[in-house]
């Protein structure tokens, strides 16, 4: 009887612990291991496995391509949190063990999140977020664990597909699945999921995420000035191939997928309060959005004033109202008015036509000490860019796992993007970069990288600081960065520019396959990004496309709209480049006084040790005194980097003095000279042939006609002198070839 009571108490506690009960139910109900094989048109297969690992998670799948495997888990809380943004977090982690490596830091373990991990997390997030229900407010976490990496197949696309499978098989409400592929373009042919080596010869590196009915969910990629028609062909092929993944996951979901959670209907305001908000706000908001004299700040202030007034008046008439619900309702009314006006007025809130750019101004060479600088202003978006040129020693070193997956050890061109709070008239903490800043900087870097020469003798650091922001600061960084590079005299292949395209669309019941009407907006404002359905960023030169990032906020976009957006972005890009060329249209050829200088120095093999010094002391001293880096390129040549021509002249004077301190006598081949012993070693004796000569080794084998194991056997002492014959220098090592025994043989004859 007592035992039964204990069991009863235990099960009652277990029943009250909702989270533990859910985990145990998930564990017990988890199906057996299931495998899915997705075959792409090029014969490369993606394998998705579920039911073996992490059974307590709401959903788990392992994606494998080649010998690269990633495990992705999806877990959502059972209690909702209030907020208008889907509380989704994606954490992608690279594991050194997966690559057979040990981390190189002091603790020999994974520490802070790397840049590549953050960028991959953003890539996965943007592929999943559009398909969550707008009323889904349960905190959800997607964790991607790298299990194995083969240095051939990149884990990022595998992670997207595994995350799609994990969410689809879980009980988390999600309108997937999605499928993702990487698209390359080699010799005018589209390559699906190219290997790391194939990517090195590809002019395109594009990730395409799509859902059922060929709807595009996310695009991100870089290209080496690929032509527009080839780029569109690659997108179409990627969407088509992604359907194989979507269809496969749907079959797996029907077979073993868990029933989705029922979402509780969110609390709503009464019809009376909604009508009051409509009457109080609609016309006033409409008047603000049709007043084309407003700028960003005045428009925001006017909207905020109306919002405060509406809330106060609702509080008087309905004292028991929920302020959060009233605020949500007001925001929905504002958004609907904004979107309706685009269709009704055929104008945008700042009075521009749909294809019209904002006013653009450019300046270069702003401050004398800078190697290159530019200020790019587009509307109320202002970006200040600087270029710093330094030696190859300043190249950005990548972590071991990133080296393995990208095939790149270091970067001699990189862009750092900063977005301080004052750019939007706000205050905030200034510190380490967030994910957004890192993502925008990486996109701008992709847009400019193809234009920078690969054999440039300097490391290039490009900084972009956003001073004012009202939309598309990353694309402004491409424009300002290109101007700054040309001002710094970097021989770019062509100038590059970027632009963002927005979308306002009308559709019913999340059926984005059949969009009733839509408007594409060129060069969007911040409010058009926030209120709209897409932020489609494209960068490139006059000839082609260098980078693309499409953030789509609706559950998929038809290919027709994507193709039209690419065309509009290409047209706008050409217009921007025409304006930029009025400021500067080619790299500066007249050198600035503060530009760094690189020269090559040829040094005879036997003089290398004199230049370098013991332990490199001469080169270190040269760096401290003049700021000049001297690095050895090969056996006989050195590269000299100087921060200015004046420093180079000073360094060359010191180097000449080091190499010509003593005049080296000309030794004749076959000549006989008097040698002085300066050191006794186990393998021979160190001798000099003339004063201040670097000691040369006379090996035991050349000491005597007899076999000598140690010089002491012949009674040699330091300071002793004898005759040797000179046979020139070794062509490889540059060391003197000397012999004593040949003279003994000649004497006997």
Automatic annotation (TrEMBL):
SMART domains: KH. SUPFAM superfamilies: Eukaryotic type KH-domain (KH-domain type I), Nucleic acid-binding proteins, Polynucleotide phosphorylase/guanosine pentaphosphate synthase (PNPase/GPSI), domain 3, Ribonuclease PH domain 2-like, Ribosomal protein S5 domain 2-like. The keyword Chaperone does not apply. Keywords: Cytoplasm, Nucleotidyltransferase, RNA-binding, Transferase. Gene3D superfamilies: GHMP Kinase, N-terminal domain (3.30.230.70), K Homology domain, type 1 (3.30.1370.10), Nucleic acid-binding proteins (2.40.50.140). It comes from the Eukaryota. Its EC number is 2.7.7.8. It holds the Pfam family RNase_PH_C. Residues 670-741 form the S1 motif domain. Coiled coil: none annotated. The keyword Transferase applies. GO terms for cellular component: cytosol; mitochondrion. One of its GO terms (molecular function) is RNA binding. GO terms for biological process: mitochondrial mRNA catabolic process; mitochondrial RNA 3'-end processing. NCBIfam families: polynuc_phos, PRK11824.1. Belongs to the polyribonucleotide nucleotidyltransferase family. This is polyribonucleotide nucleotidyltransferase. It comes from Ignelater luminosus.
